[in-house]
Amino acid sequence: MRQEYPCIDIDIAKIIHNICEIKAICHNEHIDIGAVSKGVCAQKPIVEAFLKAGITQIADSRMKNLKKLQDLNCTKLLLRVPMLSEIDDVVQYSDISLNSEISTISKLAEAAARLNKIHNIILMVDVGDLREGVLIKDVMDTVEKILQMKHIHLFGLGTNVTCYGAVIPDKHNLGMLVKLKKDIEEKFSITVPIISGGNSSSLYMVINHTIPREINQLRIGEAIMLGRETSYGQLIPNCYKDAFIIKGQIVELKDKPTIPIGNIGVDAFGRKPHYEDKGIRKRAIVAIGRQDIKVDGLTPLDEDINIFGASSDHLILDVTDCKKKFTIGDVIEFNVDYGCLLIAMTSPYVKKYYKNEQAYSA
């Protein structure tokens, strides 16, 4: 079959392998995984791979993604704090949602009453990263109001770190959740089943056995896809980092100067670029650009290739030092970081190819 470019090759067997390795690590600490599908736009073959590997909870930030997963037998968790415009869909298509606003939770209760459902929520607590979450001082009052809502079940407490403020999870900030859980259970005589202790950035604590033992859920995306924890960017033992490979085709190959000729203004994205004079170099233009990928998230598999830059449609490479002599039509392959993966999987211009879809290595 003729392959279209640009494309991303997705190795299902490697994804399943990564899940199984991470599940085993988390199981040793009695932690369940909510597998995050937003980074791959909840593509069905990938989500089905999650389930093959024993995942029972799929987490996503987009209702559109959760809707298209409704035929799958798993718990659906909405990661992004709900918008008022999607309240009915949240109750209908997600089993659990993360929340931080009492007014929104009240609307969820009303929608749940109309649909004759009980909706589970995880109350997000801001432990310092300054993204979503109730401030520590307001948690008890918020819980008291939640418990008065008949169609809402306080399923757990959660937090998010690293994603905005780059705060690293540790015993202190995750310990705040543990203390709050104990205080809530004591004051209101209830059980709070879940403490959701963050995302792939918390995995380093699982690996080195320092995560508080009361943390029993993590929301894991990047570690599954790319095989690394995100606090320090370290590879997870025995995991693959190359389950996703971007491919682009060379459309021009010429020897050219490295300094543009003429007065330098701003580029198509409003930035004034800086150029280093390296003389005449062999430049390959690949038909992929900023509309398709995050350029600084690409790493060429050929270590002798350097990325000069990109426009919306073209990626410009220095291939002067490569051992291979490239020709027009040759394909260049790249590893990706999470931001690049997210954009590529969302882009309709990047073709998705799956291999080893029948694999299962649990």
Describe the 3D structure.
26% of the residues lie in helices and 24% in strands. It has 10 helices and 17 strands. The strands form 2 sheets. Strands 2, 3, 4, 5, 6, 7, 8, 9 and 10 form a 9-stranded parallel beta sheet that branches. It is of the alpha/beta class and 362 residues long. InterPro entries: Ala_racemase, Ala_racemase_N, PLP-binding_barrel. This is Ornithine racemase. It is an enzyme of class 5 (isomerase). Keywords: Isomerase, Pyridoxal phosphate.
Q: What brief labels describe this structure?
A:
single chain; 362 residues; alpha/beta; TIM Barrel; 2 domains; nine-stranded parallel sheet; eight-stranded mixed sheet; 10 helices; 17 strands; elongated; ornithine racemase activity
The tally of strands reads 17
Give average pLDDT, whole number: 95
Proportion of β residues? 15-25%
Sheet having the most strands: 9 strands, parallel
Radius of gyration: 23 Å
- The N- and C-terminal alpha carbons lie at a distance of 30 Å
Structural class: alpha/beta
Number of domains: 2
Secondary-structure element series:
EHEHEHEHEHEEHEHEHEHEEEEEEHE
Number of helices: 10
Global geometry = elongated
Low-confidence stretches: none
CATH class term of the largest domain: Alpha Beta
CATH fold descriptor of the largest domain: TIM Barrel
CATH architecture of the largest domain: Alpha-Beta Barrel
The helical percent reads 25-40%
Per CATH, the superfamily of the largest domain is: Alanine racemase
